[in-house]
Specification:
The complex is a heterodimer of chains A (about 475) and B (about 70). In chain A, about 40% of the residues lie in helices and about 15% in strands. Chain A has about 475 residues and is of the alpha/beta class. In chain A, helix 4 links the parallel strand 2 and strand 3. In chain A, helix 10 packs across helix 11 and helix 10 runs antiparallel to helix 12. Chain A is globular, with a radius of gyration of 20 Å. The termini of chain A are close together. With about 70 residues, chain B is mainly α. Chain B has three helices and no strands. Chain B is elongated. The chains are: A alpha/beta (about 475), B mainly alpha (about 70). Chains A and B meet through helix 10 and helix 12 of A and helix 1 and helix 2 of B.
């Protein structure tokens, strides 16, 4: 087979028996062998398991057709998703021998949907410390230029999907860990509404901010993956007990009639983005206007308020999760993780409660702002990926990020590629919607993505290998 | 940017957290404590005593069902 396939395209070809899951899996394994020595996107390739999954899928499909669009699709899990019988390390020396007895709920859901498990993907240590060079495995590198950062923490998923090593993968997002790598690697990634996807069996970073979600080349592929991952799980105390909608139901509807708000001050003044990022966002707003959506500016509290509140809660919760190890095995963590997380142990109880009270106020502010809007637009990242050796340890505290606003409030948000910057690396925007309105979020993002040419370009390194 | 607390006060916080740090680690974290102070200041906006925090919990339906 030639070129790159999306999940939707591969599923169509598998359904018509034009494409063999075994052939597709072998193709992806060959790509991993050719490219992952450079990209480091996998911690562990489960080749035998992948071929067994693919052969089982092929046999079942030949007998009675595919059970859905994920049947026979090569896929990877971020290495904080517990996989029964397969090492799950969180990219950390502390868990280098950790073999879970059970799958995470979402791992099981995706296996039931028929994915082919290709392996476990690089992450920032415990989804927080990276890019680190003092861990048992190297950090993932950006396929658009391996000297550059992928963002994190779902770094391996971003790199592997962009390079076509897998067709989709899992990520987790506590302050932007799905949307950041999606943006810098030029793919799509959705942080769903808090409670939509189970967190059970996903190693925690900060309980009240953690979200599980999918990453893929296109918005439509994210919708297909979310369909398999969403749903009530009594094992997750935050799981929402409500029906799961059809996430692709509104994809063909277009943007006409959508009410779009743009939080211009977030990305123009609170944290000024690159020119290419700004051009991308303005291009998207023009698209929405021309498509019959209404677009208006929205003013919210300064970006630093949302980001600071999110990160104060994050470090406190994370310290509580890791307290015992931080006290007894501090130096077994990588430097970035241990230093960032240690700050959480230095916050008083009263300050933590004040952060929780501020969180309620900000949630109320967001709810009021979204009352008569369907979609909110801002940046996803400030610009193209920086060099991987130039990421400051305290960067996430020095300048406010664009993504944590929606962890703090729990609203669904997606990162979508909006083109390429002066350095040839991707830039992106972020769209958010009301809680549990993922179908509308996918509708807006898909309409934009379909109208633009960005999905036709893959990283040169991957294209060269494919040729 | 220097934190408002002294290094002695900072050492007390580190001890209370149960962390054992080298002098270099302590110095590095002391500098970074500025970021904690900035975040703490931002969440202390004026509010009434009755303002509630964000965390909530719900009772399982099985416990609240009226028979």
């Amino acid at each position: 087979m030639e070129g790159f396939l999306t999940i939707a395209e591969a599923a169509r070809r598998i359904a018509t028996k034009d494409l063999s899951p075994v052939e597709l899996t072998r193709h992806c394994l060959a790509r991993i062998k050719a490219l992952d020595g450079t990209l480091n996107s996998f911690i562990r390739v489960t080749e035998e398991r992948a071929l067994a999954d693919a052969k089982a899928a092929e046999a079942a499909i030949m007998k009675s057709g595919p059970k859905g669009p994920l049947h026979g699709i090569p896929f990877g899990h971020k290495d904080i998703y517990c996989t029964a019988g397969i090492l799950t390390t969180a990219h950390s020396k502390l868990l280098k021998d950790h073999v879970p007895r059970e799958d995470a709920t979402t791992v099981k859901q995706l296996a039931d949907a028929g994915i082919v498990l290709m392996g476990k993907l690089a992450t920032h240590e415990f989804a927080f410390g990276g890019p680190s060079f003092d861990l048992p495995w190297p950090p993932a590198r950006n396929p658009w230029n391996p000297d550059h950062f992928t963002a994190g923490s779902s770094s391996g998923t971003g790199a592997a999907v962009a390079a076509g090593l897998i067709l989709g993968g899992t990520g987790s997002d506590t302050g932007g860990s799905i949307r950041g790598p999606a943006a810098l690697c030029g793919i799509a990634g959705i942080k769903p509404t808090y409670g939509l996807c189970s967190r059970a069996g996903v190693l925690p970073l900060a309980f009240s901010l953690d979200h599980a979600g999918p990453m893929a080349w296109t918005v439509e592929d994210c919708a297909i993956l979310l369909q398999a991952m969403a749903g009530y799980d009594p094992a997750d105390p935050a799981s929402a007990d409500r029906p799961v909608p059809d996430f692709r139901a509104e994809l063909a509807t277009g943007a006409k009639g959508l009410r779009v708000g743009v939080v211009r001050h977030f990305h123009e003044t609170d944290h000024r983005v690159s020119d290419a990022t700004l051009v991308g966002i303005e291009g998207a707003l023009d698209f929405f206007r021309k498509s019959g959506a209404t677009v208006r500016d929205v003013s919210l509290a300064p970006l630093v308020e949302w980001h600071g509140c999110n990160f104060l809660i994050l470090v406190v919760e994370a310290f509580a999760v890791h307290e015992q190890w931080l006290r007894t095995q501090f130096n077994d963590y990588g430097e970035l993780l241990r230093d960032r997380m240690a700050l959480g142990g230095l916050v008083s109880g009263a300050d933590h409660v004040q952060a929780l009270r501020r969180r309620r106020e900000l949630c109320a502010e967001m709810a009021a702002a979204m009352e008569d809007l369907d979609i909110l637009v801002t940046a996803s990242q400030p610009g193209e990926a920086p060099r991987i050796d130039a990421v400051p340890k305290w960067g996430m505290f020095e300048k406010p990020g664009f993504t944590s606003t929606f962890n703090l409030t729990g609203y669904p948000a997606i990162s979508v590629c909006t083109g390429y910057g002066a350095g040839g690396l991707p830039v992106a925007m972020q769209l958010a919607a009301k809680p549990f309105q993922e179908p509308t979020l996918f509708r807006a993002a898909h309409a934009y993505e379909q109208a633009m040419p960005w999905r036709k370009t893959r990283p040169a390194l991957a294209v060269k290998e494919a040729a | 940017m220097t934190p408002k607390i002294t290094e002695t006060e900072f050492a007390t916080l580190v001890k209370r957290a149960g962390l054992t740090l080298s002098d270099a680690q302590k110095a590095e974290l002391y500098k970074a404590y500025f970021y904690v102070e900035a975040m703490v200041e931002r969440v202390r906006t004026p509010r009434g005593r009755e303002a509630e925090p964000a965390h909530i919990f719900t009772f399982p339906p099985s416990l609240t069902k009226v028979s």
